[in-house]
Prior knowledge:
- Helix 1 runs antiparallel to helix 7, helix 2 packs antiparallel against helix 3 and helix 3 runs antiparallel to helix 5.
- 69% of the residues lie in helices and 0% in strands.
- It is mainly alpha-helical.
- The N terminus and C terminus are likely disordered.
- The longest helix has 31 residues.
- It contains seven helices and no strands.
Amino acid sequence: MSTLTTVPTRFSNKTFLRCGIFSSLLYVAMNIFVPMFYAGYSSVTQTVSELSAIGTPTRMLWVILSVGYTLLVTAFGWGVWQSAGSNRYLRMAGILLFTYGITSILWPFAPMHQRAALAASEASLSDTMHLTLAAVTVVVMVLAMGFGAAALGRRFRIYSIMTILILLVFGILTGMDAPKVEANLPTPWAGVWERINIGVFLLWIVVLARILLRKEKMSERPNRVSFRA
């Protein structure tokens, strides 16, 4: 008895989709690993952006690692677009995720100043660019989740809507702390609010990647040809 099975034709796209899972894992690892090199930094009271602020000991390390995240999430956006086929909503989600990845390239060029510098009125164009980029990023994230919700089944739609609601609620809480950051005032939960926001989006990426990987696997089954003797 001999069996011949064709090689899956979409292996490369499955690799792109897996990049979404790896990107989220990398970002979580960055948030655990990088603060270890910043004495006095608190993930509870301080924002993620403060890890790469001008003059911090972790700025270069964060920037280097973020390049990997940017490449992975951009590749994932490409993979989503390739998986879309005739699904225009999923295609749009892929374009937005690809845009999100490409936009991330700009972060190293738009760092914020540290709190003390902001309170001393040392803010510059870089800080304005940082806030603008943050706003654009959130809009792209929400739109990507919205189109993703419309593209797939009811369960994923409900999950996506819940994720968007969580992101909006904790986004408001994070925004309320922004003036305190600029004034160098205590922000007891700013880091938690922001990390919840980031975390739900990272998890959404993982869930979307797994759904599309499962669809890719199912689509390969009719293409497998077996010859028995």
